[in-house]
Write a structure and sequence with these properties.
This protein has about 400 residues and is α/β, with parallel strands linked by helices. Helices cover about 35% and strands about 15% of the residues.
Length: about 400
């Protein structure tokens, strides 16, 4: 039986906004989490990236805030990066467009004064990164005494980035009687421990395995020597000229080097990393979303904050050292039922870390070799596969499937 948004108990204003966003039926995580959120339950939600976790916590929050005093900070949403904070803020405004509610994003890298004015004027929802929020709290700009709902979005990433102490400081200032929700693509042991401290009798919503990419992702691992990665990537982009492509590098320097190389090869490309000003980051991401830029080269600072439809190809230029980062990177493609390719360029020194990714996911991927880019040392195939690398031309086009907005 098909579940509808109407059956979840949402208010007419929210149903109207959901319809205007183009969504016709809730995703599995929304089906499970929204009713629990509306009941006021604490929730720990785990689901693959791109499955609608943001709406799963925002819709119950907006319905709760629709009744009660306006202009009083009643909901705090913590996010690990500026990009994700902006994404959640935009979603809150989209879903709450027919409600008289105010919201603001609070994060570093920009001037404090506009944020301070918004906080002092009174807002219903604050979406914040932990460090900048603590700055405002230390200056007396934020009153957390009436907060009714706390959300940690991408909770595992927040702790991985070293925000554990800041998050605990913030939690200690909040009213004990509140609703708390943690959402993430993966749930680590650190998140489990924090949940036991900060939540009461919480409902666990777990859709799929804890470390699993979306079903529509085709994983391709290409063995290549490190110095030839840039040339191979340029060749792949020649063969796949129509696909919107997101390339992840491990360092800011690599992001600049790779983007400059691709630009010299005639690609429409932009770079997104922490050394860019916030204005430049917003501009690069905006152009990528609008289709003005075909290729975006980014560090992992952007892995949790890019909500862009129709990314056909994600390239791991470097194999991430943290296997869970792989899940978040490749989750930028195959969103909302679409199909996409996650291509990893693996040099011999990265064999071990690629194995760590496969161990986390509980599956292995054949090592491909593209003619003309054979590595000096032939890759060792996982035991589940045949020992001889398959020779494959760079005709690595995603299986096409209409993106399904749900």
């Amino acid at each position: 039986m098909t579940v509808s948004f109407q059956s979840l108990g949402l208010a007419p204003e929210l149903l109207r906004a959901v319809e205007e966003q183009g969504y016709t039926e809730p995703t599995p995580v929304q089906c499970e989490a929204i009713p629990k959120g509306l009941e006021g339950r604490d929730v720990v939600g785990s689901a693959q990236t791109g499955t609608g976790k943001t709406a799963a916590f925002l819709l119950p929050i907006l319905q709760r805030l629709a009744s009660g005093r306006r202009g009083t900070l009643r909901t705090l949403i913590l996010a690990p990066t500026r990009e994700l904070a902006e994404q959640v803020l935009n979603s809150a405004r989209d879903y709450g467009r027919h409600l008289d509610l105010s919201s603001v994003a609070v994060y570093g890298g920009v001037r404090m004064e506009p944020q301070t004015r918004a906080l002092k004027n009174g807002v219903d929802i604050v979406v914040a990164t932990p460090g900048r929020l603590l700055d405002h709290m230390g200056r007396g700009h934020v009153d957390t005494s009436r907060i009714e709902v706390l959300v940690l979005d991408e909770a595992d990433r927040m702790l991985d980035m070293g925000f554990s102490r800041d998050v605990n400081k913030i939690i200690d200032t909040l009213p004990k009687e509140r609703q708390t929700m943690f959402f993430s693509a993966t749930i680590s042991g650190d998140v489990d421990r924090l949940a036991k401290r900060a939540l009461k009798d919480y409902a666990a919503v777990e859709i799929g395995r804890r470390a699993e990419a979306a079903e529509g992702v085709e994983h391709v691992v290409v063995a290549v020597d490190k110095p030839r990665k840039r040339s191979l990537l340029a060749k792949v982009l020649e063969v796949l000229p129509d696909d919107r492509t997101l390339v992840f590098t491990r360092t800011k320097h690599a992001a600049e080097v790779v983007s400059n190389h691709l630009r010299r090869m005639g690609n429409n490309v932009a770079a997104l990393h922490g050394d860019k000003t916030q204005g430049a980051r917003n501009e690069a991401l905006g152009r990528f979303k609008r289709g003005k830029t075909r290729v975006l080269v980014a560090t992992d600072v952007a892995a949790r904050g890019i909500d862009v439809d129709n990314i056909g190809l994600v390239v791991n230029y470097d194999v991430p050292r943290d296997p869970e980062v792989y899940i978040h990177r490749v989750g930028r493609t195959a969103r909302a039922g679409a199909q996409g390719i996650a291509m990893t360029l693996m040099s011999p020194d990265e064999w071990t870390v690629m194995g760590d990714v496969e161990k986390l996911m509980g599956r292995t991927f054949k090592r491909e070799v593209i003619p003309g880019f054979e590595p000096a040392v032939a890759p060792v195939q996982p035991v589940e596969h045949t020992p001889t690398p398959r020779q494959t031309g760079p005709s690595l086009r995603p299986r096409r499937g209409a993106a399904r907005r749900r």
